[in-house]
Design a protein that fits this description.
Helix content: 25-40%
Number of strands: 18
Oligomer: single chain
Radius of gyration: 22 Å
């Protein structure tokens, strides 16, 4: 399928900051240039984007808008922890409903998404991997995130404690080999029996290790992260603070260990935050993002009810 070239103008927000007025040129599937322009009234390219189809349109006169109603253009969102939306659930849905969920988030600006499963038995996990593989092949999802089942039942949150089991590296390896490259991340608790053996699977398959749904103390978490980093594994914290012991000045726990590890291993250890004002106080989010400006990222942890209100 060919992708026509086009240009579009607007207010651009990217890693470099905010450009109030710029022209973006797209060649094929890549942005070929971003050119700052003078502010004020601007004309869109004669070959601009058609809002309904998302394709270019070369018919009709140039559009005109003022600086006050100029569109804002931002990079696509990356969501590495997402269970579904628009009535579709990645952990349990069929292919049609999972595709509907992925497309719902695509329409709202998420261009890279990991489909998150929840604690389940091996048969249930394999079933969903088979269902989600076509979506990965189509580029609707970037892969699958296993949130469990090797977590701590005492910190299960919304997960079914009956599906939580001790870490099983053989089961993990079988799931990873089902569709090589499909599983991109796994959440496990470092205190789960057998958890260390799972590090070999992560290292071999290039799977991100995410620590969460855990009751581990500070030292246990620090030691486990160090072992993972030594094996070349990228590490994250699954929704930092949530489903973890509360941070206490005499018992800093897994949350403090993950913040410390992210500072100790920049570019190798990161933390997730659900910054919705409910899961975390805004002050907590500010504290972490200011302490870890390049190592903290937001996730939705969305589920099938997202978008249905």
């Amino acid at each position: 399928m060919s992708h026509p070239d086009f240009t579009v103008e607007g207010r651009v927000i990217d890693a470099a900051g905010i450009t109030e007025h710029a022209r973006i040129e797209v060649t094929g599937l890549r942005i070929s240039s971003v050119t700052p322009l003078d502010s004020g009234t601007t004309h869109a390219s004669d070959e601009g984007l058609d809002e309904a189809s998302g394709q270019t349109s070369a018919s009709g006169p140039s559009a005109m808008w003022s600086a006050s109603d100029m569109p804002t253009i931002i990079p696509g969102f990356v969501d590495l922890h997402n269970h579904g939306g628009d009535g579709g659930a990645f952990p349990t849905g069929d292919e049609e409903s999972c595709r509907r969920a992925a497309l719902f988030h695509r329409r709202h600006g998420t261009t890279t998404l990991l489909a998150s499963l929840v604690s389940a038995n091996e048969q249930e996990i394999v079933r969903q991997l088979d269902i989600l593989k076509p979506l990965a092949d189509e580029g609707l999802i970037a892969g699958v995130h296993l949130e469990g089942p090797f977590v701590n039942a005492h910190k299960c949150g919304a997960q079914n404690p009956d599906r939580i089991v001790p870490a099983d590296a053989d089961m993990f390896a079988r799931a990873a080999s089902r569709h090589p490259g499909l599983i991109r991340q796994i959440t496990l608790a470092p205190e789960s029996p057998g958890a260390e053996a799972c590090l070999d699977v992560c290292a071999r398959e290039g799977i991100i290790l995410s620590l969460g749904h855990t009751d581990a103390d500070y030292d246990t978490t620090m030691n486990f992260v160090s072992k993972a980093v030594d094996r070349g594994i990228m590490v994250t914290a699954t929704h930092l603070f949530n489903a973890m012991p509360p941070l206490h000045h005499r018992a800093p726990g897994a949350a403090a260990a993950m913040i410390t590890s992210a500072k100790k291993f920049p570019g190798r250890v990161f933390v997730e935050l659900i910054a919705d004002g409910v899961h975390l106080h805004n002050g907590t989010v500010d504290m972490v993002t200011e302490s870890l400006p390049n190592s903290a990222f937001f996730i939705t942890d969305a589920m099938e009810a997202a978008g249905k209100a």
